[in-house]
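Before going further, learn to read the protein records used in this course. Taken together, the tokens spell out the fold as the letters spell out the chain. A record is reproduced here so that you can trace the correspondence yourselves:

***
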Amino acid sequence: MINIHATADAARYRTMTTPELRGAFLLADLFAEGQVVLTSVVDLDRAVVGSAVPKDAALELPAPEELRCEYFCERRELGVLNIGGSGHIEVDGASYELAPLDVLYIGRGSRQIRFASDDAGNPAKFYLLSYPAHTTYPVALVKREEANRVPLGSDEEANRRTIYQYIHERGAKSCQLVMGWTELAPGSVWNTMPPHTHLRRCEVYMYFGMPEAHRVLHLMGEPDETRPLWVNNGEAVLSPPWSIHCGCGTSSYNFCWGMGGENQRFDDMDGAPIPTLR
């Protein structure tokens, strides 16, 4: 079973109410203990966004009937980020240990994928992001300490942050998936400011690591027609190519970014200068 989801185009977006915006661009029920949750975003480069939170028993990644596949990665590649306790993923009989904030890349052709937690009292929380793949790359485990780190921002602009790149041009090889996460420094609240769009790639932001009573105000839309989405811990925002994607938190927080599209260039973006935002 997979949830089939569609967003909205730029014309309809301008007339949407807050509930309509949230329904189209926010995935709110992303994590569920003891379950695999999958959502197919049919108009966002055919992305599949999901999670696996195993407790006492391992969870197997299904092949939903809606994808018309014999097994999930028959024509897809998959990136997995662990934002919970330690766990492991078994891919075709080989086991990969994932500590918190490790990433596993699983290439096209991988048949059996199983998720397990090392401690049911502190389960792993595997965030899943998948795109169609037209070539095969090997399974690759990237530990947090092996990720490429890119420091950005400043204290003065309240946006000092570190970008951790895992699946990218000079990291784990993939067909089109690019994936990593960003850590906001204490006292910094703005992410991806000034913002940008990239017409050649669609992006998904999954926010995590924020205190329970806090939220992120995610800004989306065309640069001259922006709208806010209040986002909770463990929720994801779907960002079409015509939309900016940036946010401000009521405390520091993290977010996983991932995308698919025509290329994997980190600098392939069209900037939206702050004075032009509306």
In short: Residues 3-276 form a domain with the Jelly Rolls fold (CATH 2.60.120.10).
